[in-house]
Amino acid sequence: MSSMKTLTVIAVVAGSMLAAVAPANAVVETFATYTAVGGANVRFVNSGTNPARTSDARYYTISAPSHTTAGSVLVNFSFLQASLAPFITNISALYTLDATIAPFSPVSSTGAFTQAGLSANFSFVTTQDITISGPGYITTFYAAGSNLLSGSFSGGSILGNINGTSGASFASGTNGSTISYTSDFLTFAPDALLDRAQALTAVTSRFARTTNGALRTFKAVASGQFSSDPAPEVNATVPEPGIWAMLVTGFGLVGFSMRRRSRVPAA
Fold first, then answer.
1. pTM of the full predicted structure?
2. Do the beta carbons of residue 94 and residue 71 sit within 8 Å?
3. What's the pLDDT tens digit per position in 61-84?
4. Is residue 218 a part of any domain in this protein?
5. Are residues 212 and 259 in the same domain?
6. Strand, helix or coil at 238?
7. 75: Cβ–Cβ under 8 A, 6 or more apart, which residues?
8. Beta-carbon count within 10 A of 162 CB
9. Same domain, 255 and 145
10. Are 150 and 259 in a shared domain?
């Protein structure tokens, strides 16, 4: 697409701004972000029986450091579209992520690593009622528990440096990942190119690998962003003036045609 640009660096908020290297050709039309509330909210667990590989590894949200299964965590969620930002900026939301890792070769012993094979389902739901209204809007009420954004992806990765305390997780439609999004607030084009980017900070106890090369279990603070090309449409907004003009013209032509037919004498 002509609007596609190469994105070499993205910035996502994780307490403070964190720069993370993104995949080449990543989508740049960011429409939503989320930031962590409190401490560690994601965990990677390598429970594979083969220590040289990551079979049976999982990556999921945790509401407490000791949790061993996916749970919902509080985050601050924002839509970036000008028409939604007045209503949904840093609102409280429940975030759930549950991912598996396909068997993958051992990670490097030093320097940068990429743990590929990440597949997941995720969701962000509101914790409060939201009413969108005003000039230019179709008044719309969303009850607590509404779907801010949910979806699934495969072909994602976790990236970092061995002994490092920060990294990232990516899934990019332009780099071969399969991604789908749904939302009560937005509608996505069927052929949209989608991206998901997540910054990982305060990694404990640092990124490391086992003696056989598997990525060790870790916890981290995760914040992130979502992108789409083309940008999604906002469900609660009134159509643009140009669209209204087309609708009015269309209705007028239909009415004119019906009037002409009614005047034609019966044979």
1. 0.79
2. no
3. 998 777 777 899 999 999 999 999
4. yes
5. no
6. coil
7. 34, 35, 36, 37, 41, 92, 93, 94, 95, 124, 223
8. 17
9. no
10. no
What's the angle, vertex CA 213, arms to CA 63 and CA 99, rounded to 5? 30
Q: Which residue has the higher pLDDT, 121 or 260?
A: 121
> Could you tell me which of 164, 156, 157 has the C-alpha nearest to residue 209?
164
**Choice among 21-25, 56-60, 157-161, 187-191 with the minimum mean pLDDT:** 21-25
Sequence-distant (≥ 6) Cβ neighbours of residue 149 within 8 angstroms: 32, 77, 123, 124, 181, 182, 183, 186, 226
Structural domains in the chain (count):
2
Contacts of 205 (CB under 8 A, 6+ apart): 218
Name which of 106, 101, 115 is nearest 51 in CA terms: 106
Whether residues 178 and 205 fall in one domain: yes
Looking at the structure, tell me whether residues 246 and 173 fall in a common domain: no
What is the average per-residue pLDDT within 103-129?
85
Structural tokens at position 33 = 């972000």
Domain that holds residue 209: 9-236
Q: Residues 254, 231: one domain?
A: no
| Residue whose token pair is 């739901």 | 125
Please name the amino acid found at residue 44.
Answer: F
Question: How many angstroms from the chain centroid is the CA of residue 178?
Answer: 13
Instruction: Please report which helix (H) or strand (E) contains residue 223, including its range.
Output: strand 218-229
